[in-house]
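Title: Comparing notes on inverse folding

I've been comparing how different people in this forum approach sequence design from structure. To keep things fair, I'm posting one structure and asking everyone to reply with a full sequence. Here's the target:
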């Protein structure tokens, strides 16, 4: 089952204990629910749209609950539910805006052998990222991933892994997954 948020609107100024947002939830490409949160610490509201019912919402909730436990804070695992699932999707949308902003401003790399658990910004503007500069970067950081060259979802996975609570994976784990896909 593919569950995604579209028409996502985030109100950072109103986000206090939780994200303040409004979005349309699509399930397998079909517009099904509206999800929202006022940002004051309560659970997300998920309401079926016209043509959908609470039975549809229950079916999606049951599917989410049947998925593997969610890894948080190292070895701790918790059961998933629709509220936590929607919160993670909303957080991912907010972080997507952050990584896009970062990649517009600078060239970012990720290396597995640097001893750093995160992304490193270089003193190089994205407009100057050409083949010659890619070669220079690879000479200094032979096993690096140039995050600007990744698709946005891979870049976002790395960015989210810098906050292990959000992704459930370390930067090194995500790096290895992407490295093996590309090489």
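Reply #1:
Here's my take.
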């Amino acid at each position: 089952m593919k569950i995604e948020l579209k028409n996502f609107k985030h109100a950072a100024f109103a986000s206090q204990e939780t994200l303040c947002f409004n979005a349309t939830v699509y399930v397998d490409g079909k517009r099904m629910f509206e999800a929202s949160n006022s940002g004051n610490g309560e659970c997300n509201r998920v309401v079926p749209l016209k043509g959908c019912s609470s039975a549809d919402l229950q079916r999606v909730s049951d599917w989410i609950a049947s998925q593997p436990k969610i890894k948080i804070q190292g070895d701790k695992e918790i059961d998933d539910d629709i509220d936590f699932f929607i919160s993670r999707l909303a957080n991912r949308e907010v972080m997507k805006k952050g990584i896009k902003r970062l990649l517009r401003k600078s060239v970012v790399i990720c290396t597995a052998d640097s001893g750093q658990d995160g992304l490193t910004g270089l003193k190089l503007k994205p407009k100057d990222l050409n083949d010659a500069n890619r070669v220079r970067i690879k000479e200094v950081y032979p096993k690096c991933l140039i995050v600007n060259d990744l698709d946005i979802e891979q870049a976002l996975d790395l960015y989210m892994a810098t906050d292990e609570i959000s992704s459930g994976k370390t930067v090194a784990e995500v790096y290895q997954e992407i490295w093996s896909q590309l090489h």
